[in-house]
Amino acid sequence: MIPTRSLAAQGNFFRRSAEEFGRLSKIAWNTEALHTPTKPYTLLNFEDERTVSDCKTFADRAVGGFSTAELDYEPAEPSSNTPAHVRFHGSISTKLPENWRVERTGYAAFRNKDRGLWLFGRLFWDVDPYAYLALRIKSDGRRYTVNIQTESVVETDIHQHRLYTRHHRIQDRSPILDQALHTKVSEDAEAAEELYPQGIPSALSDIPPESTIISSTSSTTTSGSTGWETVLLPFNAFVRTNHGYVVEPQTSIIRQRVKSVGIGLTDRIEGPYDLRIHKVWATNGMGEADIEEERRICGADALPLDEGVRSAWIESTQQAEETKSQKKPEKKEKGLKGLRSEWEE
């Protein structure tokens, strides 16, 4: 590909090419392609204000609705260990426009823009060597969804997973609220039957794991908590959807050609929302390279070292490891180092 003047002028063509060459050179120099990577692969770093401008928002206003979506860069506050981040906020409205073709509103979302071109074609993220998508966020407790789009046969396909957090909240109930919730549950049950004829996948369930629920009567933050937390979502747990409908047969994410990553809110609960995002990255677990930053920002809610590797990889193969150790007794390293040694055997 020969870059023309107009091509080079679009979105810093040469800067993107240089950055991608630098990243690939580093991988080759460190022989990272020969073993499981132990360092994070950053996709969206909102400490850089340019990353915010490289994203775009969506809301039902595009079809005449009244929901809003904004992305604002928030500078760091060193005194409270708050990093520079992006604030995804606005208001959800389920009011229908005066348009008989629109039957459902109440959504907002954002994602990164097309990453553009470099010397060898279109830029994609290759997350194939990684097990998790990690997001460091500060949530208001609403039910957000993480969206991943790849280059696929059906361009409108999206892989989705609920963004379950420690700060999911159950609101105090009143008779009026109970009636509203009853109506909403009935509507959601009808919608769920249409959207998920095979049943709601666990990765998209509106009901979070019990461990993530905090009573509304509890304090806003637990002792030592900053409100920030890191969520690890397994790539193989994402569900393939199209326009909100689960697609059958299910197919895995094409990890070598990820086009965009974003977050949406489709809970159709009217009112304001506010989600803060620091970084989004691919990883094989919480390693030594980023544990210091994790502890500094997340405080008491920081993930422990090797989280992800220990819970999703070692425990899932514990029985196989015990059988193997009986045949060939030897001392095994733990965590990411152990994962690397196993991969290289």
From TrEMBL:
GO BP annotations listed: mitochondrial electron transport, NADH to ubiquinone; NADH dehydrogenase complex assembly
Primary location recorded for the protein, binned into one broad class: mitochondrion
Subcellular localization: Mitochondrion
CC annotations in GO: mitochondrion
Annotated segments matching region Disordered: 316-345
Keywords recorded for this protein, A-Z: Chaperone, Mitochondrion
Record flagged with keyword Mitochondrion: yes
Residue span, NADH:ubiquinone oxidoreductase intermediate-associated protein domain: 45-195, 225-277
Residue spans of biased composition, Basic and acidic residues class: 321-345
One annotated GO molecular function: unfolded protein binding
Source organism, top-level taxon: Eukaryota
UniProt family annotation: Belongs to the CIA30 family.
Protein known as: NADH:ubiquinone oxidoreductase intermediate-associated protein 30
Source organism (scientific name): Penicillium frequentans
